[in-house]
Amino acid sequence: MSNNKSRLITTVFAIIFMIAIPVSAFAELETTTTKNNTIIANFVPTGTMEIAPESAGDAAGKVFVEYKLVADTNDISLAFDNAEYIKYSINEREWHNIAPDDDATLWLDVEFENCVIHYKAKTIDGNIYTTTIDWNKELKQATWSATGEKMDLKGLIFVEHILLYGEEKIPLKKDDVKLVAVKKEGKWVNLILDNYENLWFNEAKNTGDYEYIVITNDNLIYKATLNWNKSLVSGLKVVYAKNDKDHAKSLKNSAIQCTEDLKIKSSTILVGGPLTNALTKEYMNQFPVSITNSNPGKNKGTIQMTNIKSAKNDLVAEYNIVLLAGSDRYGTQAAVEYFKTLEEVPEEPITVLYTSDGPLLDE
Fold this sequence. Notes:
It is a single chain. The chain is mostly beta strands. It folds into 3 domains: about 5-140, Immunoglobulin-like, CATH 2.60.40; about 140-230, Immunoglobulin-like, CATH 2.60.40; about 235-360, 2-Layer Sandwich (Chitobiase, domain 2), CATH 3.30.379.10. It has helices at about 5-15, 25-30, 135-140, 245-250, 280-285, 330-340; strands at about 20, 40, 40-50, 65-70, 75, 85-90, 95-100, 105-110, 115-125, 130-135, 140, 145-155, 155-165, 170, 175-185, 185-190, 200, 210-215, 220-230, 235-240, 255, 270, 300-310, 315-325, 350-355, 360.
């Protein structure tokens, strides 16, 4: 979108916020026009779109798509040297004016929803062209569907989501789409296209609604919101002692068994006490509660967290370590099962008791 479109961007925003110029000045022109001069046309996407840069002022961070006016097979220029006026009406309300400039096309914000916009454009030859864009159809509401697949990329866990329009799968490979954008702090940000067919979402992201816009090579526009609920294990590695594999895997299928040479290089959940888990033994003195055969006691486990610092090449990294461990295997099982019910890691250690009916908080 070139600099000479700045005036057009401003008028497009007039549509968005319903800040417009009345067209009473054009009323006399319109009433003297005969029906024979009215031609039904269409707005056709040119295939060009852009996220407006920060220099665009109020338009910054918005996704614009370029449309040309076509009657039969002829492109109708909307530039000031051919168009006397351009008008629009949202949902058949008051008509407003868009001042023609030196651009033959219109750039429209794709985030129109639940509205129909009618346009009229009169050219210097006396013809009036009318067309309509139904944004209920133009902006297709799609959904994200989790596949259950996960990918470990340099210690970060990503979960796979398919974009669906009804039952139709929309591929996201760079050869299939022109744009994939996510909204951050109210502005759209272009994502780097790759060869993945689906979206891989970082499970460490905070709970929230993540909005996406996708524009395909066929100029189809999709909008979809990913409703993400972050779990306590999102973004954390789970390391277990040999006898606690089943408990750890119930937390996270990608859990790994502790080995003597394994080191903590990211925030981690340790499952199992110091007698069976070498990493628990290594960091036991940094936790507020020591785990022994007698503490916290028979069939009891603790949930606690500590923060460690690791220095490498003059850089200091901080990691959170969560410990789920008990005096026996039932205590560890109780700690794991109770941890699953929590919405956040407790700031202070808690003790839980194993029972046949499920874990109970030991107060």
